[in-house]
Amino acid sequence: MAFNKDLASRLEEMAAMLELLGENRFRVNAHAKAARVVRDQTRDLSTLDADELKAIDGIGKGMAERVAELRDTGEIADHDELLDRVPGGLLDVLEVPGLGPKTVKLMWDDLGIIDIAGLKAAIEDGSLAKLPRMGAKTIENIRSSLAFAASAGKRVPMGVAMPIAERIVAHVRAVDGVTRCEYAGSLRRGKDTIGDLDVLCVAEDGEAVREAFCTMPGVVDVIARGDTKCSVRLKMEWDLGRWSGALSEDDLGPTIQADLRLVPAASWGAALMYFTGSKEHNVRLRERSLKMGYTLNEYGLFPEDTTTDEPPQKRGVEAVAGESESEVYGKLELAWIPAEAREDRGELEMTQDEAEYIVELADIKSELHAHTTASDGKMSIEELAEAAQERGFHTIAVTDHSRSSAIAGGLEVDRLMEHIEAVKAADRKAKGIRILCGSEVDILADGSLDYDDDVLAQLDVVVASPHAALKQEGEVATKRLIRAMENRYVHVLGHPTGRLIGRREGLQPDMSAVIAAAVEHGVALEINAHWMRLDLRDSHVLAAVQAGANIAIDCDVHHPDDYDNLRYGVLTARRGRVPRGLCVNAWPARKLLKWLKARRA
DNA sequence: CTTGCGCACAAGCCCCACGTGGACGTGGG
Fold first, then answer.
1. Shortest CA distance to A334 belongs to which of A348, A313, A319?
2. Taking the model in full, what pTM does it have?
3. Does residue A30 lie within 7 Å of nucleic acid chain B, judged by its CB?
4. Does residue A206 approach strand B to less than 7 Å at its CB?
């Protein structure tokens, strides 16, 4: 939804500018929270009236007026006024890691710095060093942030970050005396993009781990090296297998920051919770702790005693919990909350049963979206089925592209008919797995489908997906997707928006309307598991689940390795708290087949 | 600026490591 996105970025800018101007921090936070809430909304906010807007948590009178203002005039007067008072380039300066609002304001007031170019000049001529708290190390870190500007602070797709994190963890675990090591942060929460990597470890010999971490292959810069925390920048090509290092100065490509935290064994659970986040989730937990007479930090959950500022662990206060996450959640009278759900989106209200019923990787027993050499896949029908069977699946659907996807080798009707026969023959021969014939049918720009109904009727499974006209207006897109789902032969709405992370925005339909239509027609909404797609995205999944829509988690298999992407799809599903009962791929074969047939009855 | 309680106003988001410089800003979740 273009409107929500526009609104959210304006509110974010307002928060940043208010902060730079030293305004009331609650006002700043209110704008930042409103921006976050707006971004998570599945409804197009321009279609809501004032009362509906104010019903949203975080949106009050003032914000509701701003929404109406943007809808009616295309502008927000307060936003424009702030832009007049704050030079635009300062917002870029604020983005530089190591610089916060106080410092940026000081640089602006004292040195007249209003953009990145001014900052660079102030570093070179030494004037920056004259500001308070600008020591050699800090300036060096700013300089290095600027040198890596192309990538520093930029988020990378989860699928790129994951292999890097796994190698770091393996590297650290190989150090003598390391008893535990895991990655935490947004990667553990399964966010679609990752800002940096957080690695926790328990070690007998801290110095050995620090040394191993700061000198591991791929490190191009050590930002901090303290007793319990080290930060480095890593060259990104790591994930491409260039593990062996041998980097020259002019070889610097995109980098990602990785932090190592050394924690005491007794604090493992508390530390893992703290570094897993999200920040918002942690804040909720700490508020709850205080209300229950505890204080929570990364060392543990402690009985609250308010007499001193010194942290409890330093005074020898005994923690009531801290060794494991479930122990801490338990003392707070909460279910253990899956890491992926820790976003302050209502997860604290989950019961133990709800938490345990969330779908997991081992539950997935079928794949409903796969391609063969008949269109743009790399495997034959048999190879596809064999790979599915190795994963323990009971059903695989062969869904090659339809005719409009010419570049992807889409099938004309006569070829589709031959293909159906080939699939049926393979299914008759196959043992222990059911091979269904299907199609990934293009949803054309107007919402009509690429094959006629009499053709679709001959298929066991129809996945309908948008591939072209992905820049059309949101309202047109909403109608397009709904019209496709109204067709009684459609089972799954494939990658509903067509977004590609970091590359293409995709359709911006009114997702609430799309979800409502999916529920009405019994169509499953797909979470396309490829890490470049993850489409539906997490916030859409949560809204779909709350509306009771069925969810399909599919790998959109083209190549044998594509099955490995399932983990990313499942992480996204868990962020949306998908229960097993709503995930069609987690159903037993009989239930799945019954559902496929029932849609057409 | 929002929420909650109650119709005008108070309270709101925590707790820690690091670097700099001696108390504060930033970044971490």
1. A348
2. 0.87
3. yes
4. no
CA angle A99, A149, A229 (to 5 degrees): 55
Q: Is the pLDDT of residue A312 over 90?
A: no
User: Which residue is closest, via its CA, to the C1' of B27?
Assistant: A98
State the Cα–Cα distance between residues A454 and A297, nearest whole angstrom: 62
The dihedral through the CA atoms of A412, A414, A420, A423 has a sign that is: negative
Strand B-proximal residues of A, range 150-189, CB below 7 A, are 184-186, 189
List, in order, residues 6 or more apart from A81 with CB less than 8 Å away.
none
Picking from A428, A442, A430, the residue whose alpha carbon sits closest to that of residue A384 is A430
Confidence of residue A250 (pLDDT cuts 50, 70, 90): very low
Q: Scan residues 490-519 of chain A and list those with Cβ within 7 Å of strand B.
A: none
pLDDT at A152: 52
DSSP letters for A285-312: HHHHHHHTTEEEETTEEEE--TT-SS-G
Residue A313 Cβ under 7 A from any strand B atom: yes
Residue A154 has pLDDT above 80, yes or no: no
Count of C-beta atoms within a 10 Å radius of residue A595:
15
Give distance CA A298 / C1' B16 (Å): 8
The reply to whether the CB atom of residue A292 sits less than 7 A from any atom in nucleic acid chain B is: no
pLDDT value, residue A224: 84
Cβ of A19 < 7 Å from strand B? no
Residue-averaged pLDDT of chain A: 89
Is the minimum distance from the CB of A207 to strand B below 7 Å?
Answer: no
Where are any strands of DSSP class E within A236-337? Answer: 255-262, 294-297, 300-303
A298 touches strand B (CB under 7 A): yes
Tokens of A292: 């229950």
From the CA of A133 to the C1' of B22: give the distance in Å: 11
Mean pLDDT of A447-452: 96
Nearest to A586 by CA among A565, A564, A570: A570
> Does residue A521 carry a pLDDT above 70?
yes
